[in-house]
Amino acid sequence: MMMPLRLSAGFRNGAIRSAAMRSMPLASKPSTPLTAMLLSKRWNSKAASSEPEEADVNRLDRLRNIGISAHIDSGKTTVTERILYYTGRIKEIHEVRGKDNVGATMDWMDLEREKGITIQSAATYAQWGETNLNIIDTPGHVDFTIEVERALRVLDGAVLVLCSVSGVQSQTITVDRQMRRYNVPRISFINKMDRAGANPKRIIEQIRTKLKMPAAALQVPIGAEDAFEGVVDILSNRAIYNRGTRGEDIVYEKVPEHLVESVNAAREELVSVLAEVDDEIGELFIEDKMPTVEQLHAAVRRATIARTFTPVLMGSAIKDKGIQTLLDAVVRYLPKPTEVKNTMLDIDNEEKELAVVPYSNQPFVGLAFKLEEGKYGQLTYIRVYQGRLEKGQFAYHVKSGKKVKISRLVRMHSNSMEDVNSVGAGEICALFGIDCASGDTFTDGTRYSMSTMFVPEPVISLSLTPKEKNSPNFSKALNRFQKEDPTFRVHIDSESKQTIISGMGELHLDIYVERMRREYNVDCVTGKPQVAFRETSTRKSEFTYTHKKQTGGSGQFGRVIGYIEPIDANDHAELPHEFINQVVGGNIPSQYIAACEKGFMDGMREGIMIGHPVVGMRMVLQDGAAHSVDSSELAFRLATFYAFREAFRESKPRILEPVMTVEVSAPVEFQGNVLGSLNKRKGMIVDTETQEDYCSIVAEVPLNNMFGYSTELRSSTQGKGEFSMEYKCHSPVLPDVQEELIKEHQKKLAEKNH
Q1: What is the mean pLDDT of residues 118-125?
Q2: Is the pTM of this model over 0.90?
Q3: Residues with Cβ within 8 Å of residue 689, at least 6 apart in sequence
């Protein structure tokens, strides 16, 4: 369950602001009959009716907002391409790494087509039968995890694509965690059933054990690997084949004789799994009655929407099999916008939680969840949660308090668009010419706010220098990328005066450097990657510090007494530091307490060992002293700053480094080479699994030791090995590594001073 989170000042800290409430001080208006009539008319036209309109209810019943998510190379974009083809949105199919060099529709960036990966989430819409689908294809690479994060934030359901051979992998677990964070129900689709080693039973077991999600197949495959022909629908008890040049013709036939027993066993397994998560099926199971097809469909839908079960379908997108049945399942089992509970916080009423009413006759509330720089200016993707958004109307930007005119409203189809005049509640659309940041909220003048979105901290940094000095496009590009992507950070190093960019991984930063070259004609030189080390203390340390400075006239005086102690930064993820004021009797005047906290924050910004930020600290201010003339905010800020540094030095400080969960997949004959290379990089092996002729190894390795690993893995596995990694936590470095890092830092300082 997602807890309501406290809002912070800006989106950098993970806050997404959203709004919705009307405030019109009618009593203050002149009460002439004409004015009263006009006001009454205006109020009534905008007033939120308690009863939704029938046409609006029907529209929402036929609407699904879904995302396609998975581990890299599971076939998400290929699945989306087939969905667009079968729904009539595109006339021909192009592959991700196709020989025609056109590339998949949803991978519209040149970089995506060259590298064969999805970098940005792309939105489109389609129609299946009478149901409208808003679809977002998300990246599978961990470096672009924010794209998945913000897509799932605004979607009502998702399709989790799994490879029939690799199954649940590291990024699958990350996506599962993101789906749980935003309470998103999912359908699981086992793709690549035509691959050698395809084993759907093992994948279903992995969903149950690794993702801790009850799951059961709704289909039984007819054949496997090269012989994969189609599927048997367990509920309707009939075989389904895709015929025609591109699988567009669905043919229903009798279940093949050799599969009758397997289908009956699969149906019994489905009923027994549903009996554990659904009361109605549970009662029938106890009474030893077999549920009807309608009862099973209803139970699968209830359990899926309640997020206690995931139905599993299977197919092969590249072979054009199983996609139409997946679309039927999306319409049948995933929730419509009215079945999803979204909440907002009333900013003017102590952030009281209120339910979003997802109908078009309510006051307008929309959330800007993604920005793009297009040829017509900034393109802002918006999910309309409540009310209606119309071309030409004015919207209220909650963060800035400004009114903006909606001059152009479009529906997106990858990188092409279609102009529309209005969009209702539950829809996803895009606006042009609106100045805002990713995560801002627009309303019709009301002040409510939605809960926060999780933004992971960067784990890697690079120094960046443009080849041409004073290039105006350099800062322009960096500002735009920061606005688009909350995980991409930029700062100027106070010592070297270099521009430092930080992100989620080497690929993440490489993509932005390449985009600067292509989109802004700015060639850059990058420095050696720097790991985001942190510093922390290991024990409590007391301080008594007096800051005294006497010049002509009033001087500076401030005394602070208290202690610092470590806290577990992982347990305080939202606020990895804490300042507690226990001063009584006015020994430190209350107007200087805020200055003391600022001094503490100044000290946290840069540690004493290697100059990296300090985390996981609590400062308790117990006493102090002030001077009636010489004390000031600056004096107490400096006193606390120096007190913290002095106490930190005595608290046995440690350096923390980011540790990554690394998953390596390679042929079995190279297992020894892979284990050896991970051990050499000080990795701790967590899990090994052998699947037929492939092995999967999961290890925890310090990020600082992972540079250049892709080259080493390729050479030690004859190019057959692949790996993915994801940030796990910050852990203390080994004592010898700590000494080495401190010496390196002192050497840099010495060089700078000379």
Answers
A1: 72
A2: no
A3: 695, 696, 697
